[in-house]
Write a structure and sequence with these properties.
Blueprint lengths: L13 E5 L3 H4 L8 E8 L9 E8 L4 E6 H5 L1 H9 L3 H5 L4 E3 L1 H18 L13 H10 L6 E7 L13 E7 L2 H10 L10 E8 L2 E8 L2 H5 L11 E5 L5 E3 L10 H10 L9
Helix pairs in contact: 3-5
């Protein structure tokens, strides 16, 4: 069991943090339904067998004892407040305009939430997101230069039933050796570290997809790709005002289409070659 805050490193005084705030869960039609949080480990090496760890329980019981009271009550609380006026509308699938500031706030809140969701599972299963990413997020209170964040919209499972309150989360290692090989082929610089992973979070209609690669040059050239251009909005780095929602992601292959975006949306910028 961790005894230090995963963000600031303070010893002791950890809180049993609600990963998803009550006000957000109330935006779903039925917060009493049993939801499932899914965590997957895949080392990405040839011959490895991915292991799937799932945890069921009411969404309101999704807690993590990993942060100190100071972090919980200060900057983490501020991140939640920054999305409070529009995030419920996104999880309901309502039409709206996302300003640059709202995109930035949504990306910051999403990465914080994804980092926390890893700690809703046994420590032995927390192998996808490295500790360095928690420290980097604490320092900047924002996604790092090694991350890009996309937002998509898909009809929840069991639309029109209590199943709409199901929360789904998947984090998966990606093969950093393949990333390094691609950079070498393009004449780019070596990666800054060995970590690469994707994480997907679905709450109601809202889907957030985080891609983290240990190469700022490769991240700078990452986009949803032609096949996903009208289905996923890049919100980190933020753009000018964008229309929400994009087209239904189910038309492009659902959540797996986002997972494949890492393989089809890479373009190494000329400045990196």
């Amino acid at each position: 069991m961790t005894t230090r805050c995963v963000f600031c490193g303070a010893e002791g005084g950890l809180t049993n943090e609600d990963v998803l705030p009550l006000w957000l869960l109330q935006a779903l039609e039925d917060t009493s339904v049993t939801g499932t949080v899914i965590y997957r480990q895949s080392r990405g090496s040839l011959g490895d067998v991915p292991a799937v760890h799932s945890r069921g329980g009411k969404s309101l019981e999704t807690k993590a004892r990993a942060v100190c009271g100071a972090c919980n009550s200060s900057w983490m609380s501020q991140l939640e407040q920054s999305v409070g006026s529009f995030l419920p509308e996104l999880v309901r699938g309502r039409q709206m305009l996302l300003t640059r500031g709202e995109q930035q706030s949504l990306a910051c809140w999403s990465v914080k939430t994804i980092l926390m969701l890893q700690h809703t599972h046994k420590r032995s299963h927390q192998v996808v997101i490295p500790p360095s990413d928690y420290a980097a997020f604490f320092a900047e209170k924002a996604p790092s230069a090694l991350m890009t964040v996309m937002a998509a919209c898909i009809e929840p499972p069991g639309h029109g039933t209590a199943a709409e309150a199901t929360i789904q989360f998947l984090a998966e290692n990606r093969d950093m050796a393949a990333v390094a090989s691609l950079m070498a082929q393009e004449g780019g610089p070596a990666p800054v570290d060995i970590h690469a992973y994707t994480a997907t979070l679905q709450i109601g209609y809202l889907v957030i997809h985080l891609i983290r690669i240990g190469s700022p040059q490769l991240i700078a050239g990452l986009s949803p790709g032609p096949a996903l251009g009208t289905y996923a909005l890049t919100i980190w780095p933020a753009h000018d005002q964008q229309n929400w929602p994009p087209r239904n992601l189910a038309e492009a292959g659902g959540l797996m289409a986002l997972a494949r975006s890492l393989d089809s949306g890479i373009d190494v910028p000329p400045s990196a070659t």
